């Protein structure tokens, strides 16, 4: 950005020092100044005091743009975001790495999002904070470091937003078109590779047009031998503004439209399935189930509302998090309403940047903790790390979960056996078999409704025209990657 070069008097101080060091006063004075030499000396004294004032030099050596209390506040808030985001995303990566059953094709998208968010927390946030708080580049004379850090920052942001879009599209395909072939690991690896390559290409202008400029000033008394600035020098006028507009479209507008449309279609599809399954449960063929179904309907309604609220929340959080930063970059690149007040500009930039970086803290919650399988793994990891978490309680909860899934399977199998018994049995068993079939259909209708509302680990289902079975057994029955039990 053009405003990174710093056009304030302090930013121009190195050039002033060099000018005064190189100036010579052996030449004869102009005749106008000879007439009033006292005034000339008084004027030179003012120039020297204004240009190389000791206090000004010391302030420059402190290398601060933002002063207290904003300085301390920014460091504290950024530290909280870095710690919370790094911890949450590390848990997501560890949860998948430690259990082979968690290494599914669709969990790879969540891991990829966690890795990109780790880059945001461990690289982008600390280095951006350094740029916000300092007047000049404090990381040495190496131009490659300036280029690479800017590229890594942009790449991690693009990977994060594209990964969120890919997760939304994958969920859309699974729920809206359930009979299509399920995504395999090879396909997921190819998609993730394309995401990273695309992000690097989109961020490449930061590598080509960022450069490091330094000035030797030799002030050992202040510990300053040189000052350096990591700047962006674009080959065309307003190049930075054009790139900001392009980034706004690619990194924000297109993803938010895609995510919103995908999740709205998912909500409509699930609502249709829920209404359809409720109609099946109350049909004449299943009249015996009506009382039981009516008792469960309020609970199912609440779960459906929570599901819709979750999907809407994902879209809104993405929208709210990244909008301020994109608008700020666009406004500053085109108009720069802050003028020479760099401290005010940096504080506003920090606020907008922190809102964008907060997505790295919310993503582990939205895509990890609200997933039953991830939450179970999180609890086990925390139990192994923290003695205050009772390990036995976690194991008991996992055993209870497995028991409930096994019971559901036996009931569904029993309903299938009842149907087969009626179709193959003789007439003498008609009344008993019909009663068994009625009970089986009742349980089957309830299981179908629950599957529709929970989306029964839709991220890992292999779909068929009539039934749903899972790729990973127990995991498929309990996973809430797409629509969770909240």
Automatic annotation (TrEMBL):
Where composition is biased (Polar residues), the residues are 280-293
Alphabetically sorted, this entry's keywords are: G-protein coupled receptor, Membrane, Receptor, Transducer, Transmembrane, Transmembrane helix
Q: Name one Pfam family in it.
A: 7tm_1
Which portions of the chain have biased composition (kind: Basic and acidic residues)?
A: 431-449
Q: Which PANTHER family match?
A: NEUROPEPTIDE F RECEPTOR, NEUROPEPTIDE Y RECEPTOR
Q: What is this protein called?
A: G-protein coupled receptors family 1 profile domain-containing protein
The reply to whether Membrane figures as a keyword in the UniProt entry is yes
Origin superkingdom: Eukaryota
How does the entry describe its membrane topology?
Multi-pass membrane protein
Extract the SUPFAM superfamilies matched here: Family A G protein-coupled receptor-like
């Amino acid at each position: 950005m053009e405003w990174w070069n710093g056009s304030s008097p302090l930013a121009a101080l190195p050039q002033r020092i060099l000018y005064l060091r190189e100036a010579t006063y052996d030449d004869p004075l102009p005749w106008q100044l000879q007439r009033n030499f006292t005034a000339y000396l008084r004027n030179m004294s003012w120039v020297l005091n204004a240009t190389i004032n000791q206090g000004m030099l010391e302030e420059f050596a402190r290398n601060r743009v933002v002063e207290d209390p904003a300085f301390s506040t920014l460091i504290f808030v950024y530290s909280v975001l870095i710690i919370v985001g790094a911890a949450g995303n590390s848990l997501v990566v560890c949860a998948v790495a430690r259990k082979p059953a968690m290494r599914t094709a669709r969990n790879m998208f969540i891991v990829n999002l966690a890795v990109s968010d780790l880059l945001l927390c461990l690289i982008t946030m600390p280095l951006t904070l350094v740029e916000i708080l300092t007047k000049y580049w404090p990381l040495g004379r190496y131009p490659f470091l300036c280029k690479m850090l800017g590229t890594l920052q942009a790449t991690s942001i693009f990977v994060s937003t594209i990964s969120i879009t890919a997760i939304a599209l994958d969920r859309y395909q699974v729920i809206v078109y359930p009979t299509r072939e399920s995504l395999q690991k090879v396909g997921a690896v190819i998609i993730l590779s394309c995401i990273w390559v695309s992000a690097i290409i989109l961020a490449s202008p930061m590598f080509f047009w960022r450069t490091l400029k330094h000035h030797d000033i030799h002030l050992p008394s202040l510990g300053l031998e040189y000052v350096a600035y990591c700047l962006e020098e674009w080959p065309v006028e307003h190049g930075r503004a054009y790139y900001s507009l392009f980034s706004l479209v690619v990194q924000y507008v297109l993803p938010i439209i895609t995510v919103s449309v995908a999740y709205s279609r998912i909500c409509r599809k699930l609502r249709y399935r829920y209404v359809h399954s409720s109609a099946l449960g109350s049909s004449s063929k299943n009249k015996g189930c009506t009382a039981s179904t009516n008792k469960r309907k309020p609970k199912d309604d609440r779960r459906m509302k929570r599901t819709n609220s979750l999907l809407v929340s994902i879209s809104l959080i993405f929208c709210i998090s990244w909008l301020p930063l994109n608008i700020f970059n666009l406004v500053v690149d085109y108009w720069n309403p802050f003028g020479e007040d760099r401290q005010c500009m940096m504080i506003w930039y920090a606020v907008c940047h922190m809102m964008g970086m907060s997505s790295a803290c919310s993503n582990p919650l939205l895509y990890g903790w609200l997933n039953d399988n991830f939450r179970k793994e999180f609890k086990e990891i925390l139990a192994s790390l923290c003695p205050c978490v009772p390990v036995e309680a976690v194991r008991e909860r996992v055993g209870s979960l497995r028991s409930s899934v096994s019971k559901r399977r036996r009931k569904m199998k029993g309903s299938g056996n009842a149907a087969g018994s009626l179709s193959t049995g003789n007439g003498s068993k008609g009344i008993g078999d019909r009663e068994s079939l009625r009970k089986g259909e009742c349980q089957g209708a309830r299981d179908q409704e629950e599957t529709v509302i929970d989306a029964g680990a839709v991220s890992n289902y292999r779909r068929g025209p009539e039934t749903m079975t899972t790729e990973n057994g127990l995991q498929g029955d309990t996973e809430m990657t797409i629509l969770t039990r909240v």
